[in-house]
Design goal:
Elements: E1 5-10, E2 16-21, E3 27-30, H1 37-50
Antiparallel strand pairs: 1-2, 2-3
């Protein structure tokens, strides 16, 4: 069964980035550039640890 995934890659400037990719292949989120791969991996760990507890703040005027 396919699962969503984090992909780590290098951008054109040589910095490490990650993107969160849905099961259908759509990129749902992408990160800032990191100088070190370990920092990029720490960013992924931080998202995994805190996202489920994050508040949703609706700033729309609907």
């Amino acid at each position: 069964m396919p699962k969503a995934k984090f992909e780590i890659y290098k951008d054109k400037a040589g910095k490490f980035r990650f993107r969160f990719v849905a099961v259908n292949g759509e990129t749902l989120a992408s990160s800032e550039g990191y100088e070190a791969k370990d920092s990029c991996k720490n960013g992924i760990r931080s998202i995994k640890r805190t996202a489920a507890k994050a508040d949703v703040v609706d700033l729309s005027k609907e």
